[in-house]
Amino acid sequence: MIRALTPADIGNVQTLMTASADKLNAPRLCSSDNSILVADDSLVSRRLLEAVLRKWGFDVVLVSSGTEAWQVLQREDAPKLAILDWMMPGLSGPEVCSLVRENRASAAYTYIILLTSRNEKEDLIAGMEAGADDYLVKPFDNNELKVRLGPGRRIVELQSQLLAAQEALRVQATQDSLTGLWNRPTIHEILARELSRSVREEIPLGIIMGDLDHFKDVNDTHGHQAGDHVLREVAQRMGNSIRVYDAAGRYGGEEFLLILPGCDEESTLQTAERIRTQLTQFPIETGEGESLTITASFGGTALPRGVETSPETLIKLADTALYRAKQAGRNRSEFKPFNVAVS
Ligand code: GH3
Ligand code: MG
Ligand code: MG
């Protein structure tokens, strides 16, 4: 069964996409920070650079034109260091520089060294203005190239550390740390976004509030850690029971909110029952050698197509349905129809 994307999956999907792109397209790129792009139309120059760069431990990607260099540099796993010849067929080195600097699609920094056999000052100024970080005049000394690559490596490394830290913060800000589901502010944001999309595209939108039954007893009987274990497993099973374009969030302690774009009354209720069955049918390991069976109550509502409302109204309706499920004896799903007259 297809399950919904969790924030953690997004990274995996990106890795998979990168891996499959690698297989399909030549030249093969290395995603390690050791990779370097060399673009030069002279075969001799390419081979010389390749030999010396490999000796210094780089994974070298070789191309013979500016156009190919630009193609490679747009890829997600593009080398972050590039040595570009000035004069090349297609795009020139400085033209590739300008394109890289104008490209807002990638947050990573590409450190570019231009190679030139010219040494007139104006040309160099133009190259640096196009966005190059450094330049070397051909024929160059290998040691000079080596020391000039040092700052490039440091900048690329610092930049990737910065991006990793940003990504960690983003995950922390959107994900619930215990279950890996979206946290409350994020699932709220998703609801608001899906609501406007449903109105715009005239499709229904189902939402479900779920709450574990007598969960306090689970903690009291098995301990808080076992309770945490159960919450993680519940989140996992919920994720496995919904479609990729649905979203699941932890709304409160043992309370969950599910957003189901395109689902009408019938399919929302069916989904609630499917999740309830998944949670209650099989015992859950507590992580301490024990297993226990839980039950949960669900309340759903669905916005009919072409109707406008607020996220708060939908949540209130689902909450009312959940309250009814609790009142009626728990371990069940209730549905509160959307009353168009009071929307
Ligand atoms: P009801 O069927 O009416 O929902 O009963 P309940 O016991 O599930 O509801 P109540 O709101 O009284 O208690 C919720 C419990 O959920 C109490 C709280 O300790 C537990 N809980 C909330 N967040 C966490 C958590 O992060 N970890 C653990 N282990 N327990 C949690
Ligand atoms: Mg509860
Ligand atoms: Mg509760």
Please identify which CATH superfamily of the largest domain we are dealing with.
Response regulator
Computed structural class: alpha/beta
Question: What ligands does this structure carry?
Answer: 3'-deoxy-guanosine-5'-triphosphate, magnesium ion
Number of strands: 12
CATH architecture of the largest domain: 3-Layer(aba) Sandwich
Strand order of the largest sheet: 2-1-3-4-5
Count, helices: 11
* Rg over C-alpha atoms, rounded to the nearest angstrom: 28 Å
Tell me, briefly, the overall form: elongated
What can be said about the biggest beta sheet? 5 strands, parallel
Q: Examine the coordinates and then state which fold CATH places here, giving the name of the CATH topology of the largest domain.
A: Rossmann fold
Low-confidence stretches: 1-31
Give the tally of structural domains: 2
Helicity range of the residues? 40-55%
- Write the element-wise H/E pattern from the N-terminal end onward: HEHEHEHEHEHHEHHEEHEEEHE
- Which CATH class of the largest domain? Alpha Beta
What's the mean pLDDT score?
88
Separation of the first and last Cα atoms: 35 Å
Detailed description of the structure:
This protein is α/β, with parallel strands linked by helices and 343 residues long. The chain has two domains: 7-171, 3-Layer(aba) Sandwich (Rossmann fold), CATH 3.40.50.2300; 184-342, Alpha-Beta Plaits. Helix content is 50%, strand content 18%. The strands form three sheets. It has a five-stranded parallel sheet with strand order 2-1-3-4-5, with helices on both faces. It has a five-stranded mixed sheet with strand order 7-8-6-11-12, sandwiched between helices. A hairpin with a 2-residue loop joins β7 and β8 (255-261). α3 (66-74) runs parallel beside α4, α8 (215-222) crosses α9 and α9 crosses α10 (265-281). The longest helix has 33 residues, at 142-174. The two termini are 35 Å apart. The model is unreliable at 1-31 (pLDDT under 50). One magnesium ion is lined by residues 211, 253-255. One magnesium ion is lined by residues 211-213, 215, 254.
